[in-house]
Each structure stands twice: as C-alpha cells, then as structure tokens.
Amino acid sequence: MNIPVPESPIAGMDLCDHLAVVKGTAARGGAGAVPTVWPDTIAVLRFAHFAEDGLGGAADFQRRLTAPAALSPWSGSTELKYAFRLKTVTLWKLTGADPNNAAHWTLVPGPFDAAWWLPSWRAAIIEGGDTTGPSTEEGRELGLFSWDPRAWSRWLGEGSQEVPGNPGNTIEHVCDEVAPADPSCAYGRAREYAYGVLGQFRAEPPAGAAFPSRFKVFARFLDGLDAGMLAALGADAGWTWIPGAVAPLHGAIDLHGTVLAEGWRFPSWRAVGKIVGTAPIVLPLSKPLLGGELVLEVCTDKDAAVVTTGICDAMPSGDGMIDGFTGKSKTKYSGSSLQPFLVGDQWALRLLKNVLEGQYPGTIDAVAVDVDPNGSTATLTAYDANNGVLGTATTVGAGRQWLRIEAPGIVKMRLTGEKQPVVYEVLGRKRPILDLVTFKPSDWPQVIAVDIHDKQTALEPEILKGEGECPKLRYKLPESDGWTRVEVAPWNRGDVALVALCGVTSRRGRPSRPRSTTAPR
C-alpha cells in the first residue's frame, strides 16, 4: 500500500520581541533575505498539527515548560491519519557571505531555553456558536531562547484591535452563553480489556466534531459480586453461566450516522437451554454526562425458565398444643403434639412426638429444614406422588442446623427425631443466588441513572428500531448536573446487549487567565 507523504506540520517561524510581539518572519527553506534580529528575539516555531516532543533531555533547546498533552496524536481525515514527532531542533550561525551556501553556516551548540505554548491567533475565550472550539490535537508553538514567551501579549498595542487573539476583546464576551460540547458515543462493539471490570468502552467523537465529548464507559457487576461467585451460585441452582462478549446484533442499526452491527452482550444464566436472566450490570462513567442516551438490544426468548424464590414457611405462633397448620406456601403440615414457642423474636415448633409431615400443593425440586436435633438425631425424608422415597438427610448434635434434599417431583416431606427436635423454618427451595440477584417481572429491562448528587432516576424505554423479538431500545438521559453511572437490572425474559451509550460531558469552559486554548485543524 502506497501511503501519501504528508506535508510538513511546521507552518512557519515568527520572530518576536521579549513580549512575543511579531517583528518579522523567518525565511522558509533558507530562501530569500535573512531577516534582521535583535538580542531579545524569540524565534517561534508554529505547527499546523500537534507534534509529539521527541527531542529528548540532551537536546540543544531545553524545554522549560512541558508541552500541553494531547488526548490523541493523530491528525487527518477519517480515511487517513498521521502522527508527527519533533526529533531535532538545532541553531546555525551564518559565518560566511552566502546564506544559500550550506558551507557558510556553523552549528551553534546549546543548551538554550525553550518553552511550549498554546497558539494565540484566536480569541482568548471559547466563543461558542459556530466558532471552532478547542481541541487537544491543535498544533502548538515552540518559543526558542525564552522560557516565558507570554504569547497572549503579542496582540497588545496599536493595529491589533480587530485581531481575535487580542486579550482586550475578552472582557465584553466573558459572560456570553456558550454552546455545549458535541456529543460522542461509546459503542458496545468496541469493548476493551480493563483491569478489575468486565470491560471499558471509549467514546468515539463523530467526524468533524469541533469540541467532542471524551469519556469512558466501564461495565461491572453490583458491589460485592463477581463472575466467579455468580457462576458458582448459579450452578448450585442448576444454571449455566454465559460470560459477556461482543456479539452480532440481530439486525444493524444506523445510530447518528454510524452503522452498528455488533454489541456487547450482557453476562447471563441459562437452564436447560432456556434463559434464566441477565446479570445486574452497572455502567460507571469516567466523566459525568450532562445528558445522553443508552441504547440496548433486547431479545425475548420464547421459552424462559421459571425463576421462583422458593417456598418458605415460618412456624406458627400461639400457646398450647396443635396438630397441624397451613404455611404461607399453602403447604399443609401435620403431627401429634406440636408445641409452638417463642425463641427471641422468632417462633419455633417443638415436636413432642418427634414427627412433622408436610404435604405440598404441587411438586417442588428441593426441601430444606432449619432444625435443632436437641442433642440427638434428626432425619429428613422426601417423597414422590407414589409415596416413594426420593432422598433422605440426617444430622446429629445440638444447635440449629440445615437438612437439605434436592430431587425433582417432591410432593411430601417428613421430619423425624429422637429427642423432641425443634423446627424453625421449612423451605421448599433454597437458592442463595436469589438472595443476591432479584428478578422482577417486566416487559423491558429496568434502567436507573444516578447523578452526581447520588439521586436515582428511572429511565423509560422507547423502541428505536425493530419490532418482534429483538428491538433496539433507547433510554434517554435527561439534562442534569451530571450523570455518573447507569444501572441495568437483571432481566429474565431474554438477552440484553449494549449497543451504545452517548452523551455530552461538559459545557465549554473558559480559561482562568487571558490566554488562548487550543482548536482543531
């Protein structure tokens, strides 16, 4: 591939006095008459594009002020970009009669003072409107033979009243309303590795943005959760963990002029091929957004796994003996000489005849009993509809313990003991994962935005594109003092993919002193 050689980024050299007022221009390429200079002359190299300082610490010109950093060294079009690096700057003295003869020039070694400074050709404030805004990629200027060129002062004095860079023009515009930054989008397709999180997504400014918003979106779980824990607890419930990944969308979408065919699919669980739900995802922002939008693709599964929190029955309250009760789960418990009593703030049930049976209204796949064997043995047995034994669990000792049996088709449980065991709670299904992850039925994923004041706002979805099983949804971030993160709740109807998070980071600020900032080329 033949890459075109770019033009030199050096736009020229001005010769200034100690106040940085331009007194002359150096001839380019050694052609033309040699300009007159004075002892306080400052030579100012002007760059059309940002150039990385590659002179090194042993260069003849010692930079006393560090070059203002750029977020990106690249300049050019969307099809072809270049990056420039300044490698050498040397001083030569004319020691002969002919300035066009290289032999008549002698190298003058340093060190000499030098300083990078921002260009001063335009206004010292950001004007807004259609005026080109600042950019970190704008070309700098390198002042030679001085460490403090004070670039802004060059436009003071007669004849420069109409020059945009005249700091005297700042006062009348310092309180003018300015335009917001141009919005940018972080795309799910561009997921990058980042330590300690699920990934990061860099905002990509649109082509031609004068003052682009620059931010990063991170993806992580809720505090206290990690992939290992969620995968393990899900496995205990019979779920298979599916990690997050960049994956094709179910139909491309044109979002603000950018065609997107991939997104970042949220981590999720499945059971026997059916979706159980997506993991809770938090999307923190590296900078607050004043407004924006979250775009998700949601794909509804026809067959979603039924997620239940389990059947949990507390023991009844009251005085005296009972021979049975109905639990909150509609399970009917029975036994001879059952004695309720209060332990602290919890009711318990003593089995004076050492037996408690429970008949479930339907079938369950696990049963657990919180029991104190009272220093002896306690045994839990699970039965099917034909009164066949599906499993048993036994414990011995004193103090509260859990007995558990997992088996499909349980319709009845029976707890027996030897020394009047005490029962505190009976669970039809104990899934620790559901203590950490809550699946609330909803047509679409529930999204909450959190601002800089830690105030939460629920965002409503609107269908951006597509009908049927995999539409693209937009959740609009209204204008605010700044949104710091977006939280997407678990969704148990299908898969969710991050398409984009777009927004504006800040309004154009003004410098604290009368000097120019930067602008794109």
TrEMBL record:
Protein's name in the database: Uncharacterized protein
Domain of life from the UniProt record: Bacteria
